[in-house]
Amino acid sequence: MTDIKTIDILLVEDDPAHAESIRRAFLSSGTRAEIRVVGTLREYREQVTARVPDIVVLDFNLPDGKATDVLISPPEDGPFPILLNTSYGDERIAVSALKAGALDYIVKSSEAFAAMPRSVERALREWTLLQERKRAVAALQDSEARYRLLVENANDAIIVAQDGLLKFVNRTAVEMIGYSETELISRPFPAFIHPDDREKVVGHYRKRLAGDTDQPRYTFRLSPRDGGVKWVEIGAVLIDWDGRPATLNFLTDITERHKAEETIQASLREKEVMLREIHHRVKNNMQVISSLFNLQAGHTLNAECREILKEGQTRIRSMSLVHEKLYQSRDLSKIDLAGYIQSLAVHLFQVYLAGPGRVRLDTEFEDVALDINSAIPCGLILNELISNALKHAFPDGRTGAIKIGLRRGIGDAIELLVADDGIGFPEALDFRKAESFGLQIVNLLVDQLEATIGLDRTNGTALTLTFRELKYAPRI
User: Is the pTM of this model over 0.90?
Assistant: First the structure.
């Protein structure tokens, strides 16, 4: 445990309930701590300037930024340790934040809040070890004698490799690998590396000897004497050893952290399977609703009612298709908008055109991916525009073409074109104030997408929708 009698903690948390839970945990644990609470990165910067804390417990998402805006990599280069506090479901982000400079992370829960005092004490111990290692490296540059004294008592494994052989092994390295120093010295170092990782480690070793100083820390597996596997993180520098080049290597045992990351990844894979199944079930349920509409249409003799039910079916299909595409996609957060439009248009042509070939479908698509929040209102708008063109642009068996275009506009804008060379949109009709249900839906969804829509009557009808991907879920 740290020698600090009262821990100076800066808690950066914009949820008062979470902050209070953490404060109560320290009170009940008996750990002496002074907790300063702020809710923004701006206040965080002010506080650390006014007084450097012993440790910062930092929420990942804050009103004016993210934790990655203030992280320093590697973490020991910062003025104090940062313990990341992340919401449930942000595991991948938490792992990336570790690489960006967080010392460790905690997934928010009532259990995690209760264990916060232990987590802080553990982080301070790790921080102390990191600082010791940093000081040890600096001391190496001053004196070999001082270096030997420090590395022998360091908490990290420290190894010198020269000509592919082990030349120096400290106490921690002996304990980590499980062999005595006599058994290790002058043995080829790849012998103690997991067979699947030997080529990678030897490659890094050769690059370092060749003078490549831009070698990041990386991980690999050791094969200790007990027959198990230990995951370690290694960093190395090129040194002079007895007049010849060698590598000085610092190994940190990260086996427990690696197990935790594997658990997180397994949980994420499980959630992905569940989400895929949800999209599949939503699609199936919508198809059931569409079938009910179809059955109802078969039991009515009123042509207007049948048309209304058919239009309802196409709208359901446009939403169902989004979930179908997400279910089929490798990336459950995005759909291929071009593929979606193509499938939707083909379906509508089959629904509204009795004679094949009378109206031609022309498409010109760029690659655009869209999330579900924007895809559903976009799909409903497309459904109405394409349906209107098929129903009204080519009366009395007239032939022609409908063109659908998709491209990236200026910045991150998306532009969608639905055009036909039919009889044209009535001059006297303002489509923004039209009384038809379909155009009312279009105008409503254009507002929800925060989009603009333009009409060109030059050669038939051309409607251009311009929008940006929504950052929130609209109400449909």
Answer: no
